[in-house]
Amino acid sequence: MEDTIFDKIIRREVPADVVYEDESVIAFLDIKPNNPGHTLVVPKNWSRNIFDMEDANLCTLITRVKKIAHAVKEALNADGVNIAMNNEPAAGQIVFHAHIHVIPRFIGDNREHKTYAPGEAAAIAAKIRAALT
Ligand code: 5GP
User: Could you tell me if 40 and 100 are in contact, meaning their C-beta atoms sit under 8 angstroms apart?
Assistant: First the structure.
C-alpha cells in the first residue's frame, strides 16, 4: 500500500472540495481540472489501479461513478461527460491510488487544463452536492 495524496484527502489531512462520500468512496474536484467540475471518484480501500482492484470494489466504484456523472452533468449543465481511468505511468497515472475521472464536456470545448478563480471550485462543488440530493 502507498500513502498517496488521495489517502491524505480521505483522512481529511489535506483539504479538497468534496462532493460526495459514503462508506466505499469519496469524490472531490480535481485540482487541475480539464473542465470546471472535473471530479475524481476514489475508492476508500487502497488499490494501485485497475490491475489489483477486487472485482467487488470495482463494481461498487462504477455505480458511484454513474451517480456522480449524473450530478456533474446536471450541476454544470454539461452536454456530456468523459469517464476515464489512467492505469500505470505509461497511461498517464500520477497518483497511485485507484480513481476514476468524471469530466464534464461541452460542445466545442477542449480538455486543456483550466484553473479555478478564488471561490469558484467551492461554488461548483456545492452545486454538484445539491444535484446529488
Ligand atoms: P491520474 O493519476 O489519473 O493521472 O490523475 C491524478 C489527478 O489527481 C490529476 O488530474 C491531478 O490534477 C489530481 N490531483 C493531484 N494532486 C491533487 C490534490 O492534491 N488535490 C486534488 N483535488 N487533486 C489532485
Answer: yes
pLDDT digits (tens, 9 = 90+) for 104-128: 999 999 989 999 999 999 999 999 9
- All three cell numbers of 64, joined, read 458511484
Cα distance between residue 119 and residue 123, in whole Å:
6
Residue found under cell 476514476: 100
- Contacts for 89 with CB less than 8 Å, ≥ 6 apart: none
Structure confidence by residue, pLDDT tens digits, 44-98: 999 999 999 999 999 999 999 999 999 999 999 999 999 999 999 999 999 999 9
Using the mean position of ligand 1's atoms as its centre, give its distance from the Cα of residue 40 in Å.
8
- Is 111 near ligand 1, meaning CB less than 6 Å away? no
For the residues of 4-68, what is the DSSP string, one character each?
A: -HHHHHHTTSS---EEEE-SSEEEEE-SS-SSTT-EEEEESS--SSGGG--HHHHHHHHHHHHHH
**Ligand 1 in reach of 83 Cβ (< 6 A):** no
- For 39, other C-beta atoms within 10 Å of its C-beta total 31
